[in-house]
Every structure is written in structure tokens, then in C-alpha cells.
Specification:
Strand content: 5-15%
Helix content: 40-55%
Order of helices and strands: HEHHEHEHEHEHEHH
Strand order of the largest sheet: 3-2-1-4-5-6
Radius of gyration: 19 Å
Number of helices: 9
Largest sheet: 6 strands, parallel
Number of strands: 6
Shape: elongated
Structural class: alpha/beta
Oligomer: single chain
Length: 195
Amino acid sequence: VMYDAALFYADRAPALGETAAGGLGEGEFYLATVHRAENTDDPERLRAVVSALDSLSHPVILPLHPRTRGKIELLGLGADGSLQLVEPVGYLEMVALERAARTILTDSGGMQKEALFQSTPCVTLREETEWVETVEAGWNILAGASPEKIRAALDHFESSHPGTPPRLYGDGEAGGRIAAALAEYLQGSRGERRE
């Protein structure tokens, strides 16, 4: 049902001009999220990720998780290049940003799937993923915290867009089928109790 929800809320997302994109147009920026302990609690990994994001060729919008903000401030990391640190955004605003981003860079499990739903390539800032099918389909590249791997993954997507995303997670009608199956089951259960 995650795909059902993505389709439902995509129609309710705000216009890009009403988001943290700050006047940037569709395809003119990367969207990033960094919040997992493996990246935020390891100073060297966090430095590498922030440095990589700050050195990219397009603006990088990074809505900052409070924990990540604290770690960045503690380490004295700055953003004086491509990286634009913004306050956390709500779900609908994030959907609008995901849809308009050139590529998503994230360590979030759910966002890897949302990238596919929004037809936006994804670079995962981890060495592994729960969603291996997104990697196998060519829509997600595992880069870890390596600036070289992050740039190589982005270069790959710049030169070879993955095309039309496969329907790995259904057709967006799972909720309706589940409701119908439950209604049928409940109707059958009522009939059995009467007998």
C-alpha cells in the first residue's frame, strides 16, 4: 500500500515554488537526507558525506534532521558550496521535492522506494539496502559515504537515465483489493456464525 499512498499524496503535494527549493526549477537540484546513526554518529563518515554533497555540480537541498544538525554543528562542518541546509519539511513538501529533484541522495530506507515511485534516480548513502530490487532495476546505486562513489553514481545517472521505473510494488490499487478481500471475509464470517 506504500505505492497507493505515494500516488494519492502526489496529487496533493504543493507546487515546487511553495517548497524549500527556493526558486529552483524541476531537475535543477539534488535532494538529500542524512539521518542514520551509521552516517551521523561516525565523524569521518559524516564529514565525507557533507563534503561530497557540498562539492556537487548542482544545488543540494538537505532538510536537516535535528540529530544531523546537532552533529554537523558539533563537528563544525559548513556548507559553502552546493549544499543548502534547510529546516525539516513535511511529507507533502517532501513529495514535491522528490518528484522535482534531479537525483535523490539518501540513507533513508523509505525514501529509496519513494524515489522509484516519483521516477527519480536514487543514490543510497549506505553500503547495503533493504530494497535490493531497486538496485537490480537500475534505479538505485549504493555509494556509502565515499565522495568518489557518490560522484560516480551521479555521473552514471547523468549519462544514462534508467528510463521508465518498473512496477516493483504493485499498481497502486492494493488498498482497494485489501478492502474488498476483508469485506468478503467478513461477510463469509457473518454467514458462518448464523448457521
